[in-house]
Design goal:
Hypothetical Cytosolic Protein, Chain: A; alpha+beta; about 90 residues; globular; 3-stranded antiparallel sheet; two-stranded antiparallel sheet; 3 helices; single chain
């Protein structure tokens, strides 16, 4: 009898939909307080997940989803760096 492997699900901070973890991008807040995009999904820090679309990132900015997840304010310069990183990722896919 074969067992069914459980797929880890995460909620997008933009569209608030539950999706498989591997289909999403992880944004982390490190212990130093910097906010980065984590392409490997394995770096240390508090993580929040966003779908691989720029629309979801823009929704997360509008509804303060990342700020709510990190329990800290996110500067606009960080949002600009995240948008640039999303553009690079969307260009490679």
């Amino acid at each position: 009898m074969k067992t069914i492997k459980k797929i880890p699900m995460r909620q997008c901070t933009g569209c608030r939909e539950m999706k498989p973890k591997k289909e999403m991008l992880r944004v982390i807040r490190t212990s130093e307080g910097s906010i980065l995009l984590d392409p490997t999904g394995k770096q240390n820090g508090r993580g929040a997940y966003v779908c691989r679309s720029r629309e979801c990132l823009e929704k997360a900015v509008r509804n303060h989803g990342l700020e709510r997840s990190f329990k800290a304010p996110v500067p606009t310069a960080v949002y600009e760096k995240l948008k640039e990183a999303f553009d690079r990722i969307e260009g490679t896919e």
